[in-house]
């Protein structure tokens, strides 16, 4: 069994699948309940959820998402029509399970993030729409503090997330650290990437620029809103020092208003 490391996670890779496990733990079987198929994960996770064991249910549903996405990829690659019309179908149950489990745990921001993943693949999915309405009701009175500090996440696949942690460092600058990966259609991560820097911040926008990794400029712009940030990257993965297809691009959902970058590796 091969181990692949990403900041905060280790991926235990067998012949058919890589599963994410927190570095604070060990293997899936030794750090919470484990399962061997998306169907079994669904059954065991649902049982744990009904028993009020939210963390165990989430652990199982994350594995369900990983197994289901591999099954969806197999289904896609066997049919060109499926590739274009239903990219992720089997996986929707796992995403909705995770939204519901986090909702029951009152972890509303993670619940919303998972519901939005389901709706990204099927905007008319009734379960995801129902979950999102309940989440929005729970957050109706919530207001984010007037700071951009916190953690922002974007789904990467296989139950894992890309992350950007933001911390103000001066009135006109912020420190950020990005941890990303790209799965592609393979059984394990096809690209990994990390970046941290202190950058100028003006009118809700942080700008990063470097020529450190190639002759071409890597430019990353992050515009902040109360509940998310919108990132745009100019320059490809190698220009920014990332692995294959890793990019700071798209919408990152805010899940906290306080977070710290992990210690730098020596």
Explained architecture:
By secondary structure, the protein is an alpha+beta fold. The protein has 6 helices and 11 strands. It has an 8-stranded antiparallel barrel. Strand 2 and strand 3 form a beta hairpin. Helix 4 runs antiparallel to helix 5 and helix 5 packs antiparallel against helix 6. The longest helix is centred in the N-terminal third of the chain and has 24 residues. The radius of gyration is 19 Å and the shape is globular. The relative contact order is 0.12. The N terminus is likely disordered.
How would you briefly describe this protein structure?
This protein is of the alpha+beta class. 31% of the residues lie in helices and 30% in strands.
Order of strands, main sheet, comes to: 4-5-6-7-8-9-10-11
Question: What helical percentage do the residues reach?
Answer: 25-40%
Largest sheet: 8 strands, antiparallel, barrel
Can you count the beta strands?
A: 11
The secondary-structure element order is: EEEHHHHHHEEEEEEEE
Cα separation of the termini: 27 Å
Low-confidence stretches: 1-30
Binned strand content: 25-35%
Based on secondary structure, the structural category is alpha+beta
Radius of gyration: 19 Å
Gross morphology: globular
> What is the overall number of helices?
6
Average pLDDT works out at: 87
């Amino acid at each position: 069994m091969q181990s692949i490391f990403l900041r905060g996670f280790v991926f235990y890779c067998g012949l058919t699948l890589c599963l994410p496990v927190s570095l604070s733990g060990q293997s899936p079987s030794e750090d919470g309940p484990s399962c061997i198929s998306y169907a079994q994960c669904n059954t065991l996770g649902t049982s744990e959820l009904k028993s009020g064991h939210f963390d165990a249910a989430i652990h199982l549903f994350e594995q369900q998402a990983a197994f289901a996405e591999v099954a969806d990829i197999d289904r896609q690659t066997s049919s060109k029509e499926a590739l274009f019309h239903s990219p992720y179908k089997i996986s929707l149950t796992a995403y909705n399970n995770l939204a519901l489990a986090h909702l029951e745990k009152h972890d509303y921001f993670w619940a919303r993030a998972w519901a939005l993943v389901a709706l990204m693949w099927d905007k008319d999915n009734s379960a995801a729409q129902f979950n999102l309405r309940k989440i929005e009701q729970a957050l109706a009175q919530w207001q984010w503090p007037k700071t951009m500090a916190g953690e922002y996440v974007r789904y990467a696949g296989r139950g894992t997330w890309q992350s950007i942690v933001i911390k103000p460092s001066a009135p006109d600058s912020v420190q950020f650290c990005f941890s990303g990966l790209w799965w592609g259609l393979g059984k394990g991560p096809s690209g990994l990437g990390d970046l941290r820097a202190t950058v100028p911040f003006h009118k809700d926008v942080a700008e990063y620029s470097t020529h450190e990794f190639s002759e071409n400029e890597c430019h990353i712009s992050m515009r902040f809103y109360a509940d998310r940030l919108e990132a745009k990257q100019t320059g490809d993965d190698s220009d920014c020092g990332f692995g294959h297809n890793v990019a700071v691009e798209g919408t990152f959902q805010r899940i906290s208003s306080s977070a710290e970058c992990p210690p730098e590796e020596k």
